Amino acid sequence: MSSLDAIFKAYDIRGLAPGQLDGRQCRAIGRAFAQFAGTDRIIVARDMRETGVELAGEFSAGARTAGATVVDIGLASTDLLYFASGRLDAPGAMFTASHNPAAYNGIKLCLSGARPVGQETGLAEIKASAEKVLAGDDAAGVESGGTEQLDLLAEYARHVHSFVDVGILRPLKVVADTANGMGGLVAPAVFERLPFEVEILFPELDGSFPNHPADPIQPENLAALKAAVLARGADIGLAFDGDADRVFLVDERAEPVSGSLTTALVAKALLEKYPGATVLYNLICSRVVPETILECGGNPVRTRVGHSYIKQVMAETDAVFGGEHSGHYYFRANYRADSGIIAAMVVLELLSKATESLSTLLAPYRRYADSGELNTEVADAATAVEEVAERLVASGTTVDRTDGLTVDRGDWWFNLRPSNTEPLLRLNVEAASPEACERHVQEVLDLVAAVPGGTPRQDR
Q: Which of 46, 91, 330, 335 could form a disulfide with 86 if both were Cys (CB 3.0 to 4.6 A apart)?
């Protein structure tokens, strides 16, 4: 194994910093990316993690050895970096480990126009090139490129506003938990001068995450937001992850709203503006998503999980919007990139136009019960999925191998797949009732436990 094998994932670079990801590697990756991108400018940004200063600096130095000028936009959310890439039509590198714990860092790369870079669209080539640089210590070459400093936050806030009719917004009470992540920078800039009454929880940028992990898909991390929504009598709660490209909603009763329900809600809003448009949803979204798209006259298209895949399909289909159960929401007018704050603004516009509460607006979409994403550490996640698939096929079950393993049983379905970013086995189950969902979750977990690859990890 090379030193890069452990950190190059399906659609980003991520690992313990400095244990797995260090400055020398970043310098080599910066040079390799600049050569791969083939442009004279590269935008670089970072989140609030302490290691980001050194790692982004070394990456920038490596890019300059390939002759690129580095446009440093400083502290930013990932969706701000994507906006910069689209606005300046230049490749970009965002230093973040998203929702991962403080000990991690990573790099999300994109080509000009915020086009995705994943394993099948450039990451493999960049890794191979960086390995050659490391082997020859070529990254220590002369820096012939330059550096520019640029602040795009105010322009990005105006861009976010362009997705709604600002004139119809009313004074809603909003609580936003930014979890000491980059939402603490972006959310105040976006909400400034809007008529909302906004309270931001944990706005201080602190990559040690002193209050709670910046991972809103985990219910326990919503506790402070739920309490604040009830205490303030807020209309909505917003929970952002560490790099603020994802958002999860909490309604006025402090009930969490799944990414699937938010996708359905935003899809309906976009289809009112773009009748008949194509809308994407990934294969772990609830059935309510394609049902809603069809009911609103749209064209639903199912995709694999992951931003690089979804952005590619958006380009192929000219989709107006795409949503993931994990809280990523993609907009054609946002260079096909994902943005939590844009999705939040669309929902706030819907609430401003409605006379009902968010829970009432969502009631028609609460048609099924879902497990949420259940993560398990097993001996070999990929092998476990294959072994479960083989047993199901042998029993005559029809399986879908688009992304991991999906099985549709009529009144319930499940998806089982290895994580693209962590050493975990991910399970999603949806059924007609909470009781049925719980029963089927155990059924699938029993299947996993029965195969050799599904045994619990012993090396923790």
A: 335
- The reply to whether 98 belongs to the active site is yes
CA dist., res. 58 & res. 225, Å (int):
37
Give me the CATH number covering residue 442. 3.30.310.50
Q: Per the confidence metrics, is the pTM higher than 0.90?
A: yes
Q: What pLDDT does 421 receive?
A: 66
Same domain as 82, residue 51: yes
Helix, strand, or coil (residue 33): helix
Helices (H) and strands (E) in the chain, counts: 14, 22
Catalytic residue among 98, 112, 260, 326: 98
CATH code: domain of residue 173: 3.40.120.10
Cβ pair 306, 283 in contact under 8 A: no
Positive or negative, the Cα torsion across 396, 397, 399, 405?
negative
The DSSP annotation for 35-101 comes to HHHT-SEEEEEE-S-TTHHHHHHHHHHHHHHTTPEEEEEEE--HHHHHHHHHHHT--EEEE--TTS-
- Residue 82 inside a domain? The answer is yes
What was the pLDDT predicted at 454? 77
Q: What are 124's two structure tokens?
A: 């493999």
Q: Does the pLDDT of residue 139 top 60, yes or no?
A: no
Average pLDDT of the residues in 324-333: 96
57 and 147 assigned to the same domain: yes
Q: Reply yes or no on whether the pLDDT at 458 is more than 80.
A: no
Condensed to tens digits (0 to 9), the pLDDT of residues 31-42 reads: 999 999 999 999
Residue 176 lies in a domain: yes
| 360 and 396, same domain (yes or no) | no
Shared-domain flag, residues 142 and 31: yes
Mean pLDDT to the nearest integer, 254-274: 97
Instruction: Give the list of residues 6+ apart from residue 142 with CB closer than 8 angstroms, or none.
Output: 65
Residues 361 and 374 in one domain: no
According to the model, what pLDDT value does residue 3 have?
84
Number of domains in the chain: 4
Cβ 450 vs Cβ 394: under 8 Å: no
Considering the domain architecture, whether residues 207 and 268 belong to the same structural domain is answered as no
Neighbours of 50 (CB within 10 A): 12
Q: Cβ–Cβ contacts within 10 Å for residue 223, how many?
A: 12
Residues 343 and 318 both lie in one domain: yes
Place of tokens 């938010």: 262
